[in-house]
Specification:
52% of the residues lie in helices and 5% in strands. By secondary structure, the chain is mainly alpha-helical. It has one domain: dinb family like domain (Four Helix Bundle (Hemerythrin (Met), subunit A)).
């Protein structure tokens, strides 16, 4: 097995203030997903390798583009945006990839969503509350909650990406 990664990930500060800490950890996990995909072909990125699961690295990338848009644009700003990949007929469309889907397109969509998320977050207090409310608790979401959830979402899916990458080409790494 070979170690992987050329993508530079900035280690989050161990002493930063809250906002810098949240930004640091979220950016670290964003870069981790890209590192897990780095150097693979579209065919490898589309390949489900852990049967019976259909999960792929390309599907994870598409999913995280949707998630970035959902939490920072749709929940935080209350924008009504169409999904990138999901439809009424295929609510998990982000995970359902075909030969026509490319990493270049998915990563560009994710990077665009990340850039917009950074812009939105930079001008808001961590205490600012969303208009949209939780379906479970009927409470609004603070921007702090959105950050924390995004870190958790990436961390969970980066664990999946770790396993997928190892099964695709044997590469391991953190």
């Amino acid at each position: 097995m070979t170690a992987m990664t050329k993508i530079e990930r900035q280690e989050p500060s161990t002493t930063a203030a809250e906002r810098e800490m949240l930004d640091g950890w979220l950016d670290y996990h964003r870069a981790t997903l890209a590192a897990k995909c780095e150097g693979l072909t579209d065919e490898q990125l589309r390949r489900p390798v852990l049967a019976p699961s259909e999960l792929t690295l390309l599907g994870l990338t598409r999913h995280m583009a949707e998630v970035e848009r959902w939490w920072f644009q749709q929940v935080t700003l209350d924008l009504d945006l169409p999904d990138l990949y999901c439809t009424e007929e295929d609510q998990d469309g982000d995970f359902h990839v075909t030969e026509e889907h490319t990493y270049e397109e998915a990563e560009a969509a994710r990077q665009e969503a990340i850039a917009r998320a950074r812009e939105i977050a930079a001008s808001r207090s961590l205490d600012e509350l969303s208009v949209r409310r939780s379906r479970r608790t009927d409470e609004p979401y603070s921007l702090r909650w959105v950050y924390t959830h995004m870190i958790e979402e990436y961390a969970r899916h980066n664990g999946h990406a770790d396993l997928l990458r190892e099964h695709v080409d044997g590469s391991t790494g953190d």
